[in-house]
Design goal:
16% strand; alpha/beta; single chain; 7 strands; 7 helices
Length: 207
Amino acid sequence: LCLCMLASMLCFTGCQEKSEPVNRTAFRGLDEDEMFIGGYIGPRPVYRRDGEVIWRGLEDVSVFQDLKDAGLNYIVDELNFAGSTYEYAKKALEFAQEAGLMYFMPAYDVLKVKGQIMASDVEIKATLEEMYQYDSFGGLFLKDEPTSDMFPFIEKSLNKLGEIEEELGYTDLRHFLNLFPQVSPDQLSNGTDSKITWEAYIRGLSS
């Protein structure tokens, strides 16, 4: 299952009448009656000062605990923007587990989403097996604001993840994709479709 965030609003069931049943989405680490409340963690380069790239979230569990105390139960890691590594992701999983948070790990080292290069089945399986040992691992943060020309690769990635997770029995993992808000066709399509609408863009992964 891939979760898509649109203009910073995460929607699961839409608006329904109270009399209609609501199909809830199960998340690893959350009880059936617990609502998903997520947020981002990690500074983008624009927030750096004087070349500083080390963020205090690397030091101890306090930042993660503050997020938990604020009411969040899932966090999406953007620390890859600040030069973090695969090893940091494992440290973040430790902090998240200690604080009682679930964690979407950046996928760039798993699926090579940014460069659209698929990792091997062996590499993906090994990564998932290692990350799944942490109770805080909820899934992968696939891509921030992908353009429509990336959708075929993303669909291929999701299909491959689904196959491997089914084989491993990790069917409770969820993966996160942050879509564009309403912007120009050139931005939505990376200049490949001057007539694409936002509605067509957000439906692109299921077309």
